[in-house]
Each structure stands twice: as C-alpha cells, then as structure tokens.
C-alpha cells in the first residue's frame, strides 16, 4: 500500500509538469517581449497555477504520510512560483501600457500648449481690432475698404477663437481621461509588485518547511505517527488560543475560525482574510479607546477609561438615530453600550460597533444581507458570529471574492476608508500626475500580513493533520 501511495503521489506530481512543458511557456523572462507575447505567457502561467492547484487539492485527499506532505508542499511552492511569474508578466505588460499612455499624454499636452499659444495670439489680434473707435476709423489713414477688411478679419478671428476653445476643451477632456487611465495602470503595477513580494515570502516559508520535513524523514528521527501526534497536540493549542475581540471579550480561535468558515461559504471570502480584518480591528479598537454615549441628542461620548469627553463622539444625524434604533431592537441600553471613540487629531467621528467596527450607517446598508445569511431578523453587531458574517459580506462587496492578493488588499483598504489603496495627485513641480499611497494602504498591508500569518501558522496546521 505504501509503495502504491508513493507511486500515486509521484504520478500526480509528474502529470502537471509534463503538461506544462508540452503546452506552456510560463517564464520569468520578460525583457524584449511584445505585449502579445507577454499576454500569451500570462495565460500559460495561469494554466500552470490551475494545474498545481488541482494537484494540491487532489493530494490533500490522500492519506497522510511523509510523501503526501512533501507533495503538498511541492505543489504549493510550484503554484506560488507560477503566480510570481504571472505577476512578473503583468508588471512587464503594464510597464509597456504605462509608457504608451505617457507618450500619448505628452502629445496631448503639446496640443494643449499650442492651442493656448494660438488663443493668446488671436486674443491679441482681437484686442487690436477692438481698440478702433469710430473717430479713429474716420480719421484713419486707411481708406474705407481697408477698414472693412479689418472688420472681416475680426469676424474670422472670433470664429477661429471659438473653434480653438472647442478643440481645447475636447483635448483637455481627452487628456484627463488618459491621465486617469495612466493612474489606474500605475496602481495595478504597484499592487502587482506587492503581491509578487508576498508570493515570494510564501515560497520561502514552504521551502523551509519542506526542507525540515525531508530532513526528518531521511534521518528517521521520528516516525510519521509521532509527527501526526505532535501536529494534533499543536492543533489543540491553536484552537484553544484566545482570539481577542473588541467589545465582545475573547473567544477561542477554533470558534472564530468556525464563524469565518461559515461566512466564507456564504460569501466566497477567504477565512484568513476575514480573521485578518477582525484582528486588525481589535488592535485598532484597543488603541483608539472605548466610549459610551452621554448625550442622545448631540452624540457626545465619554472614554470609559480616561473620562475624556468627545463632542464629536458619533455623527448626530447620520449614525446616532440608526444606532439607537439598532440598540432598541436588541434591547440594549444606549447609554451603557460601548462604541469606538474618535481618533485624536483626525477629523471625523467615532461610534463604530462591535468586533468588526461597523459604523451604524454602514451596518444599516447591508443589514438585509446579514439577516439573510444568518437567518436572524435583527443581527447583532456585538455578536461575534454576526459581526464576522457582516465583515465577510462587506469584503465580498469590495471585491475580495476572487481571493487574489491584489483584490483582497484593495477590499481591505476599502473596508477601512471606503477608497482604494492608492490615489493620483498632481505634482506641480514635475507637471505630472503621480500615484501615491491612499489613507487605507497601511491598513490594507497590515491586514494582508495578518491574514498570511493566520493562514500559515494557524489555519494550515489545522488542515494538514
């Protein structure tokens, strides 16, 4: 049986490789290649990723053994390496797009500059003609026919001016459109570079784990049964680790994972990403501080630890009425329920609710979806299961269902700020538009880092038993 199992795993690993060699040209070499070639290679890389993912899924179904575990790690490494090649191709392709867009923008900018100069020249000529008074026309050395020639020039000048203004508006609108497209390409380039770095780290972790496993197997330091027993003991510890939640105490990680897996099945968002957001919000909540409402008409709140009073505790018209409505339905005391305090030195309000820190107006927008997913008429923002489902629904709406690193980070940035991770600003010194970090980028990066740690150190060990 052991020989058959080893043969099966070896065969399952060999098949994707043979297909890849025969049909694809997924490489990390991008220099000197056309966009069409890069697109073909990207398709090949995506096929390779799918092949290794299929191998990974099939291998998980095989009974646990040294061979199976090595095969799992091999497939995982190869899938990640193919993903790196794919991102590299995308970055090279985007680089070509960016160069083409910049060239087009330069041409359009030149047209605008020429148009402005032409308008200035026409305005000067128009002003010269307008400077004629009736007396000057009569007393002028010019005869009457020459004067009327100038008037004809005036009419044609006005027509030319009108046409130039129209053209300038069109070119300017086209230029702004091209600059917006350029900014989008640069955002994609920055995101792909970050995703590639994340994939490289994943490869490093898996290679180290594979090396350790092979060494243990070859040196026969432990039987596989001993390895499994150690993993099961570690899994029990992982499940029992307390997962801190804002305003909801702490729950065992095993319970939090169950809630996240339920939310994942309902929305398509990865459990690790959901828990990464949950962990980040818990840390933010601890840093920002917890408040209670002290005035139900103005939204004034007070920090429960320091006693500091916030006049901008909660938005008085957008969020306060909705919060009171939610609390009334749940039977909670509005003057004794904790919400987030405002962030000191940052414009805005506090008032975020529960473990996933929803402001009432955002919670209200997706309340129907939360009810449908949980089966509850009145979902509770302070209930961990409901809060986790709500976070997954919002992340799904933000584009995290693709489970692609770039889209997941964008979804996390939007979760925090309602905006993407990057924004485009005009640099007056260079006269060009530049892509810079948006307010939520740091949050998005931290969420993705937490999600990776949760996946590799907590979820994967539970799956590889």
Rg is 32 Å
- Our count of domains comes out at 2
Number of helices: 13
Across the major sheet, the strand order is: 5-4-3-6
- The shape is flat
Helix content: 55-70%
- The tally of beta strands, per DSSP, is 8
CATH class of the largest domain: Mainly Alpha
CATH structural fold name of the largest domain: Lysozyme
**Strand/helix succession:** HHHHHHEEHHEEEHEHHHEEH
CATH architecture group name of the largest domain: Orthogonal Bundle
- Give the overall average pLDDT: 80
Strand content is 5-15%
Structural class: alpha+beta
Unreliable residue runs: 1-24
Reported for the largest beta sheet, the result is:
4 strands, antiparallel
N-to-C span: 20 Å
Keywords: Coiled coil, Signal
Coiled coil: 28-97
Protein name: Transglycosylase SLT domain-containing protein
Signal peptide: 1-21
Layout of secondary structure:
Layout lengths: L1 H22 L11 H26 L5 H65 L3 H6 L4 H76 L4 H17 L1 E4 L3 E4 H15 L3 H18 L1 E4 L7 E3 L5 E2 L9 H11 L8 E2 L19 H15 L9 H14 L7 H13 L4 E6 L4 E6 L3 H23 L2
Antiparallel strand pairs: 1-2, 3-4, 3-6, 4-5, 7-8
Helix pairs in contact: 1-2, 1-3, 2-3, 3-5, 7-8, 7-11, 8-11, 8-13, 10-11, 11-12, 12-13
């Amino acid at each position: 049986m052991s020989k058959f199992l080893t043969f099966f795993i070896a065969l399952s690993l060999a098949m994707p490789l043979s297909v890849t060699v025969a049909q694809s040209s997924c490489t990390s070499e991008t220099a000197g290649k056309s966009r069409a070639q890069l697109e073909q290679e990207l398709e090949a890389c995506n096929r390779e990723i799918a092949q290794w993912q299929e191998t990974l899924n099939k291998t998980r179904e095989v009974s646990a053994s040294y061979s199976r575990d090595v095969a799992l790690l091999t497939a995982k490494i190869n899938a990640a390496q193919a993903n790196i090649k794919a991102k590299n191709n995308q970055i090279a392709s985007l680089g070509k797009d960016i160069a083409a867009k910049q060239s087009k923008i330069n041409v359009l900018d030149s047209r605008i500059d020429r148009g402005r100069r032409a308008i200035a020249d026409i305005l000067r000529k128009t002003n010269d003609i307008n400077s004629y008074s009736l007396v000057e026309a009569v007393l002028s050395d010019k005869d009457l026919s020459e004067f009327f020639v100038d008037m004809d020039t005036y009419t044609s000048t006005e027509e030319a001016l009108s046409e130039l203004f129209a053209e300038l508006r069109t070119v300017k609108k086209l230029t702004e459109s091209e600059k917006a497209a350029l900014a989008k390409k640069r955002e994609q380039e920055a995101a792909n570079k970050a995703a590639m770095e994340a994939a490289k780290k994943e490869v490093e972790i898996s290679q180290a784990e594979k090396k350790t496993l092979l060494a243990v197997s070859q040196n026969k330091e432990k039987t596989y049964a001993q390895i499994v027993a150690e993993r099961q003991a570690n899994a029990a510890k992982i499940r029992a680790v307390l997962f801190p939640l804002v305003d909801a105490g702490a729950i065992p990680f095993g319970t939090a994972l169950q809630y996240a897996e339920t939310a994942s099945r309902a929305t398509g968002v990865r459990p690790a990403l959901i828990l990464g957001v949950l962990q980040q919000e818990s840390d933010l909540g601890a840093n920002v501080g917890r408040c209670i409402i002290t005035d139900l008409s103005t939204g004034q709140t007070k920090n429960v630890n320091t006693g500091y009073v916030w006049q901008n505790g909660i938005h008085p018209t957008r969020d306060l009425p909705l919060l009171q409505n939610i609390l009334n339905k749940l039977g909670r005391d509005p003057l004794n329920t904790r919400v987030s305090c405002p962030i000191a030195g940052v414009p805005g309000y506090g008032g975020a609710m529960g473990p996933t820190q929803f402001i009432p107006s955002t919670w209200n927008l997706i309340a129907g979806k939360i009810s449908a997913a949980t089966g509850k008429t009145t979902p509770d923002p302070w209930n961990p299961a409901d809060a986790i489902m709500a976070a997954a629904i919002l992340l799904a709406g933000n584009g995290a269902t693709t489970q692609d690193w770039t889209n997941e980070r964008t979804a996390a940035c939007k979760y925090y700020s309602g905006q993407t991770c990057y924004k485009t600003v005009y640099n007056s010194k260079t006269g060009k538009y530049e892509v810079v970090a948006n307010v939520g980028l740091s949050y998005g990066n931290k969420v993705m880092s937490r999600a990776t740690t949760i996946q590799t150190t907590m979820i994967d060990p539970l799956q590889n038993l």
